[in-house]
User: Fold DUF1906 domain-containing protein from Siminovitchia acidinfaciens.
Amino acid sequence: MTLGFDCATKLTAASAKRLKDTGFNYAARYLGNSWKTFNTAEAKAVQGAGLKLISIFQKSANYSGYFTESQGVSDGKEAERYARAVGQPEGSAIYFAVDFAAQPIHMRGILNYITGVKKTLKGYKVGLYGSYAVMQAVKGRLITTGKPTHGPAVKLQTSSICTSFIMTLLWPVWLLIVIVLKRAQGIGVVYKLK
Assistant:
């Protein structure tokens, strides 16, 4: 089993090493220019500790009205610019967040958003970071095959369903359902990868 986590806390070489020594293998961090985003120095520290890095792009993304094709076009451009700025390899995936309890009525907007992202995101694959319901709605439709931002591809398989709102990462062809294993200081959701 491989463990990973997402966090808004900046990681240093020391904290990344502690997490690696604890048994984590992946860190999911945020692209952009805010208090919760990572930069090139942090990417090097994370990788230097032996952790693989997955990039998430999230601005607001926490209400249904956010998800339009024009917003996807804008976010795709911005995400690509930030990915290049931190040295993310072309051909890897950027995971776009859908951070609200989306219902079936919201899925068309989310699909329109991803269509917009795909129109402008040229150097990277499109991934999605959201609930189980969102993953099922888009599975096999608009998402392309990706790999971790920094590191080799991993075959991800469906794990088990936990609670009503389960955060997920979608790697097309294989679906990873996030298992909330524990909360640790400075760590958000913890992932169980098989």
